[in-house]
Amino acid sequence: MTIIPSPQFDLIYIPVLILCAGLFVFSGLRQKYPVSTVAALTAFLMVLFVVGLKIISYPINEWQNIFSHKQVEILHSKYLPGGVIFVGFGLLLLKFILKIRLSILDSLILGLPLIGIVQRLDCLLSGCCYGTTTHLPWAIHYSNISPAFNQQVSEELIQVSATSSLGIHPTQLYYVLGFLLVFIFLILFRKRVKTPGSLALLGFILMAVSRFIIEFFREPVGNKLSSMQFAGVNLLQWIILALVLLSTYVLYRREKHCCAPVLVPAKEYLRKSSLLLFVAAVLVWNFSRILAYSEFFFLQVLIALSIVVVIIRLFQKSTIPALRYSTAATLFLTIVLMSQKSTDTIINNDSIFMPQKWWDVKASAGGGNYDKINYDCGGNETGRTPEHYSIVSGGFTYNYLRSRKQHLQAGLNLGKMYDSGELLYGMNSTGTSSNMNSLSINFINPYFKYDFPKFGFGIGYNFLLTNETNALPDLYFRAGRREKYFFDVNLADNLYSSGLAGVWQMGMGSGFGNPDKHMFRAGISTVESKLIAYADAEFLLYDRLFMRTTLDVGNKIHGMVGLKYQIRKNR
Q1: Rounded to whole angstroms, how far apart are CA atoms 424 and 429?
Q2: For the chain, how far is it from start to end, CA to CA, in angstroms?
Q3: pLDDT, tens digit, 9 for 90 and up, residues 525-548
Q4: In this structure, are residues 301 and 402 in contact, taking their beta carbons and an 8 Å threshold?
Q5: Fold of 355-567
Q6: DSSP string spanning 409-469?
Q7: What is the mean pLDDT of the chain?
């Protein structure tokens, strides 16, 4: 069989990273850790894993350039032991920071062989990690653009005019078979080990033995440890043999002197989780010059999702204002730091073209009045009581401008609404002001929007953080050109800033030829069955700083004012 190697860097690599992240999530949840802890450790360990994969590929004399932020070439080669070493160091830190237990390693080891199978299939397609020459029936041949072909030409085993390499051992498939056998063995024996962490140690021993055997059939080119022979066994095999013997002795001692593990309930360290995410963002920022954009984007999305999880848990569980403020501030700094990647570096050094991307950070405050409708037992209106509400909110949005015709937005809003009446009744809110009849409710609103020249749409959800599961969907639709005239309708798309006046809106608007600088909308809405008219304007104040204001007028008045700042937006 002749294989033509594929140079596609992201063909299997990015799915492998997604599987690794899923493995960390699965292991954490299986060990019953809080979801915020799982999110933070997943993002932190994945950053270490990717950095470890890449930085070991660089000669030590180039590391100074990496840390000094000088220009370096982005290599697409990966070295798995580097990623494993970095993750091991990260797990050691997490043991002291988040108090994780060794039993999490037993969950991780069950998924590692499956990830190894996918990774070795990538090696088979790309032509790396190939074997020595052989005449066995299952030998494979690589085309004349493969590393194996070039190596055989340099050793004068074949001519340059040959169409394919000589038959070689499919060591990549040997790896696949070894990983599969390790996985089956661990599944069969997982209940026989007694000490937490012993199953992981057993898996390490089995995979090391598999690598020891495969080294007899693998071509040593490019690996100095494999090219140095002693008594018919290369240096890497001697190292593996020493580690296997030591690990086997440790496993024997652990199992012989085992005792019943004491299960300590896992605590939720929200502040420490936010600090871990900040450190992860610092690492991504520092090593961004050696990351391909696909890697950088993957890690950014992972950190952003983890931030969302921690924020939700922060508002659900934390009742200490100091903890909320410090944690939220750390997460905000993390978001700002994540945006500090050089766009020029991304475009010049990676095959994935990214015309424009930026972050919006926004905050607003608003309020209004309304009449509470009173009914008798027959459902007839008996009168109205004047009430008022106020709302404060903030949020951030990731913008991806693929072209002038496609604008993707994904973001998160959060805030708090105060209501002197009973419009929020039934949401199990608690009184927070001097007026004990006053109700308050925290909410969080993740959303997604996609705008095209002639139409746009968006979806999201307004989670009301109460003891019940009340929530409002977030829907948005636009028809018409934003720079000319358009019609839009939305449900709770502006609840985070306009409060009750933003539960639903329908109107028309225009960008007056330049929607990037100013936008105006006007239309109708309702509050407590009363029709009101609204006007909504956004305009550029200075550089990347925008102001947004809303005025709603009916039988009562509602209003909002807010600021928005664009981070890393090119003009």
Answers
A1: 8
A2: 53
A3: 887 677 888 889 898 887 788 989
A4: no
A5: Lipocalin (2.40.128)
A6: EEEEEEEEEEESSSTTTTS--B--SSSTT-EEEEEEEEEEEEE-SSEEEEEEEEEE-SSS-
A7: 79
